[in-house]
Amino acid sequence: MNNFLSSLNNRERNLVLATLLMVVTLILFFIFTNTIQSLNFSSKKLEKAKSDYEYVVLKAQQLSNSFINQSNDPAEIKSFIDNSIDLDIKNLQVDNIDNYLKISFETKNLQESFSVSDKIAFMLEKDFSKVTYSKNENGSFTELFIINL
């Protein structure tokens, strides 16, 4: 190969090197183009999968919410709240008292009590007839009363 290049005059050597440089550049260009196209395609598939997942989660939550809204069983509602609320709540109790469903729990502070109460109201799609917030030595104690129909 070295013998071949040395037998060429200067102009021919430059043309051969320029041709080789162009071929290498084209090969690199095709490799990068293919990689970018694959990346774009993968990104679109990821977004579609993410959208499909969010849709399924939303429909599952709606189905779960509609199921729990029809139920007045304290055990089912307690289980639903335990599985749905991601904040740290302690001593969760759900009881039927007369015509009311009483939900009581403890949290670290009043702000978390407000947040948990809002989430429970949203998930159960029911308004509270009475709400009691109180501070204690461990944080905050909350009682929610919902009219059972």
* Radius of gyration, CA atoms, in whole angstroms: 33 Å
Widest β-sheet, arrangement of strands: 1-2-4-3
Distance between the termini: 93 Å
**Do you know the CATH architecture of the largest domain?**
2-Layer Sandwich
**Which CATH top level class of the largest domain fits?**
Alpha Beta
Please name the CATH topology of the largest domain.
Alpha-Beta Plaits
Number of helices: 4
The largest β sheet comes out as:
4 strands, antiparallel
What is the ordering of alpha helices and beta strands?
HHHEEHEE
Count of distinct structural domains: 2
Gross morphology is: rod-shaped
Give start-end ranges of low-pLDDT stretches. Answer: none
Helices and strands in order, then pairings?
Blueprint: H1 2-7, H2 10-70, H3 74-84, E1 90-97, E2 100-107, H4 110-124, E3 130-136, E4 139-147
Antiparallel strand pairs: 1-2, 2-4, 3-4
Could you name the key traits of this structure?
single chain, about 150 residues, alpha+beta, Alpha-Beta Plaits, 2 domains, 4-stranded antiparallel sheet, 4 helices, rod-shaped
Characterization of this structure:
With 149 residues, the protein is α+β, with helices and mostly antiparallel strands. It has two domains: 67 residues; 74 residues, 2-Layer Sandwich (Alpha-Beta Plaits). The chain is 62% helix and 21% strand. The protein has four helices and four strands; from the N terminus they run H-H-H-E-E-H-E-E. Strands 1-2-4-3 form a four-stranded antiparallel β-sheet. Strand 1 and strand 2 form a beta hairpin. The mean pLDDT is 84.
